[in-house]
Design goal:
The structure holds two protein chains of two kinds. Helices cover 38% and strands 25% of the residues of chain A. In chain B, 43% of the residues lie in helices and 24% in strands. The longest helix of chain B is centred in the last third of the chain and has 19 residues. The termini of chain B are far apart. Classes of the chains: A alpha/beta, B alpha/beta.
Chain lengths: 251, 266
């Protein structure tokens, strides 16, 4: 059974439809990349899977049950299990808060842990992303972009989620840091059995982490399958064009 | 002939230099890349080459463009020089274009100023400039920038930059804001125009794969210092400086993922 699923989902901003008839199941433990260009609907799918918006038609299922944004106990369980990582680590961390408070925020808002228990889970999450314990008493401005993205990932891990939904998690990072954060995501997946859904316009980032790739264009899925086969033998014209356009290093 | 000669260029905001004693040269027809990560000083270096740095920054050293010293020269005198010698295409065409002016008029401006075209000849030159950047729809000349796609806007910005037939085109991350298929098309366009006009190119980018497609030689910048310079294939094959080695290794790891794609970074 899928841990998360979109069934015949559509979404509109006002009168403009940005997603049509999208069906997508995410199995426990798998890693799926959503790729496509601006306006393809990648981030909209992620918003639906995160329960930040309800679909115009179709449904979003969590453990096989339709997600009901008004069902508070279901949504609380959902939020603890499905955590987001956003693109820009400069705007996603509150500059006035210390790192321990930022990382511990999901524990407070979801009522998962308090006091010493919460503190030890925050320490555990920060260690899991490869940062020192002295990180906890500092503020976001003291960290580089790559370190901030690690902090954002620690915050996503603190509720011990089953699924991470990452929206362009490495796009704002320099290439040397990008590789390190990609390695971190791959390791977390391997060691914690995390399910990962990653939206990216960068095919090499998706290829580094995701076993399965879904190609979107104009709000529809045009191709889906093993990342390896989409890269080596894309079957639709659009996927072929997308793969061929990726800048490559000379041999 | 040396078109751009940068010697000991140093740019400071306060005490710490943002560009620190950078030197390189570019001859007519050369294609050179400035590569580095955020804060490496690559954009400041390219802006200094044409005297477009913000006045609050202090510049020392020498930049000679087609034999004329740029550092310390008043803006009014630089303007006459820039047109036929060096033009810049920036990363974000929406901010480089005037939002209130139809794009045809924006292309006409440099044609009028530098080539002294008027009337019907000017209209024809605008149409030709647009068709050279593969914008053949006649409605585009009458459009405002916000009515165009990102790729179309960058083509317009290229048409404006090339209008005065410069000997050197400076492209500062010209495709970073574009989708990958659009990036590919714009790079192909730049390659064709540069070859046809035998222009020199100074290409600024954080992306080694893009840079290596566009240029023959690269200068690697790290925190304002030029740490390595050489032919692209040599730098990629045998990087000397530890920073270049890290940069090349990271780019290679991402590139290799596209071939291997084991669903795992290691």
């Amino acid at each position: 059974m899928s841990v998360l699923e979109l069934r015949d989902a559509g979404f509109s901003y006002g009168s403009r439809s940005v997603l049509d008839d999208v069906s997508l199941g995410i199995a426990e433990g798998e890693s799926v990349g959503l790729v496509g260009e601006s306006g393809a609907g990648k981030s909209t799918i992620l918003r639906l899977l995160l329960g930040l918006a309800a679909p115009r038609d179709g449904s979003v299922l969590f453990d096989g049950r339709p997600l009901d944004l008004r069902d508070r106990s279901l949504m609380r369980r959902f939020r603890a299990s499905v955590q987001p990582v956003f693109q820009d680590p400069y705007s996603s961390l509150d500059p006035r808060q210390r790192i321990d408070r930022i990382v511990g925020e999901p524990l407070r808002s979801l009522g998962l842990a308090r006091g010493a228990d919460a503190a030890s889970r925050v320490e555990e999450a920060v260690a899991a992303v490869g940062l020192d314990a002295d990180t906890l008493t500092r503020y976001p401005h003291e960290f580089s972009g790559g370190q901030r993205q690690r902090i954002a990932i620690a915050r996503a891990l603190v509720s011990r989620p089953r699924v991470l939904l990452a929206d362009e998690p490495v796009s704002a990072l320099d290439v040397t840091t990008r590789v390190q954060v990609i390695d971190l995501l791959a390791r977390l997946r391997r060691e914690n059995g995390l399910t990962l859904v990653m939206v990216s316009h960068d095919l090499s980032a998706v290829a580094s982490v995701c076993e399965r790739t879904v190609v979107l264009q104009h709000g529809r899925i045009v191709e889906a399958g093993a990342t390896r086969s989409i890269l080596s033998s894309p079957s639709t014209a659009y996927a072929r064009q997308l793969v061929a356009a990726v800048p490559r290093l000379p041999r | 002939m040396t078109l751009l000669d940068v010697t000991g260029l140093t740019v400071r905001a306060d005490a710490a230099p943002l560009v620190d004693d950078v030197s390189f040269t570019l001859d007519a027809g050369d294609r050179v890349g400035l590569i580095g990560e955020s804060g490496s000083g690559k954009s400041l270096t390219s802006l200094a080459a044409v005297g477009l740095l913000p006045p609050a920054l202090r510049v020392s050293g020498s930049v000679r463009l087609d034999g004329h010293e740029i550092v310390g020269t008043p803006d009014a005198r630089l303007r006459a020089l820039r047109g036929p010698v060096a033009q810049v295409v920036f990363q974000e065409p929406l901010t480089a274009l005037d939002p209130l002016m139809r794009v045809g008029k924006q292309i006409a401006e440099p044609l009028r100023r530098h080539l002294n075209l008027r009337g019907g000849a000017l209209g024809e030159a605008v149409a030709t400039a647009l068709s050279e950047v593969a914008l053949t729809d006649p409605r585009i000349a009458r459009a405002y920038p916000h009515e165009l796609s990102g790729g179309q806007r960058q083509r317009v910005a290229i048409a404006i930059a090339l209008a005065a037939r410069p000997q050197l085109l400076i492209a500062d991350e010209p495709t970073t804001a574009l989708d990958v298929t659009v990036q590919d098309a714009v790079l192909t366009l730049l390659e064709r125009l540069i070859a046809e006009r035998d222009m020199a190119l100074l290409f600024v980018s954080h992306d080694l794969a893009v840079v290596s497609r566009m240029v023959e030689r690269i200068v690697v910048l790290q925190r304002g210092v030029a740490v390595e310079e050489g032919p692209v294939d040599r730098v990629l094959r045998d990087p000397q400086h530890p920073y270049t080695r890290a940069l090349v290794a990271s780019a290679r790891a991402l590139d290799a993922a596209l071939d291997a794609s084991e669903g795992d970074a290691e």
